[in-house]
Amino acid sequence: MLLPQIRYRDPAAAIEWLCEALGFEEHFIASGENDSISYAQLTFGDSAILVSPVRDTVFDKLTKQPDEIGGAETQSCYFVVNDVEAHYGKAKAAGAEIVLEIDKHEHGRGYSCRDPEGHLWTFGTFEARPRQFATDDEPRPIPGLAKEPLKRAALALGLVTVLVGSAAAVWIFGPARPPVSRTEPSSLELARSPDTLAALPAPVASDRSAEEAAKRAIEEAQEQLAHERIAREGAERTALEAHEQLARERSARDMAERSALEAKTQLAQEQSARERAERAASESAERAAQKIDAPPDAQPLAGDAAAKDAEEPASGGPSETPITGHGAEKPAQSDAEGASLLAQGQGLMAKGDVAAAREIFERAADAGLAEAALALGSTYDPVSLSRLGLTRPAPDPQYALKWYRRAHELAAAAGERQTRATRE
Q: How far is the C-alpha of 314 from the C-alpha of 311, rounded, in Å?
């Protein structure tokens, strides 16, 4: 695997420019200290490059940037593209410095450009024409003989067979003779000996060696392709898993943002309802205080007016019974009882007994006291409990909003009653 390394003073900007202008794709980025880029691997089709920062290392001292040697480059990368004109237009639009316009050469058509830090890049339609060359150590086939290797091998084998057959015939039909010593090789052994095999024509041995070498080369190429296929599949699986992980993280972040927005909206609504209830309760309390402080003759008695209305149908006209203060004593007693309950609940809250305080406030709220409904809502309000440093029992924003609205209704009803009493 060939992986050219290119150094940049600003690798982050270089990566962005290479991907946007020249069509590279980010494959892997390794982070260093302070969120810096340690190195990055970019891909271009089936090829890849390594982008690294300029550092003060032993290796970096052996290399120079283009602007340090007059804009020259000692190495350059050539990438094969299908559409040279489209790639040229995209690079030029992104600000690439075109040093060689599109031109036709012996291997196709291409152009050259520089990136923002002066590195040289070439893109074109490279058309390779592989050729095979025989080395001086390899035997060259003899013209004529090399065209018929099987025929020559058959001829040699027939010659050996004739020699063996002749030797057998002489031994069977010939005159008696002393037995052959075991130290002397037979004709069959002689035919099988290395010297006899070496005596075969050179082109036959050369063809066999070339065939075996070709088979080994094919097997090695197949193994290499299998390894590369496995590596590519692994890289694709890793990229897919990374993409799915990013999608899950993006979905979780979007959901968290939506939840936070909903919670913020809910809190704003609760805050608004609480403020309205507080204003209504305050206005109701002020009106009640003004009524209590006014002279007895100036206070319209809603209870007497109601009693008078009830008596009129029976008597057929206005009652002549004088109005007493008995009808006004009942609201005073009710207000006093509600104020007492409210004070009890506030005392329990000061002690941290939220559950008991809720019961007291609810009794007072059921009696029609807006201040008690407002205080009861605050016992369920997460913000109010947090200010008091209380975490138990658990807050309930829905209940808080319910009692804030109830406080607003009670305060509005009390205001309407006071308004009617004043008019009467």
A: 5
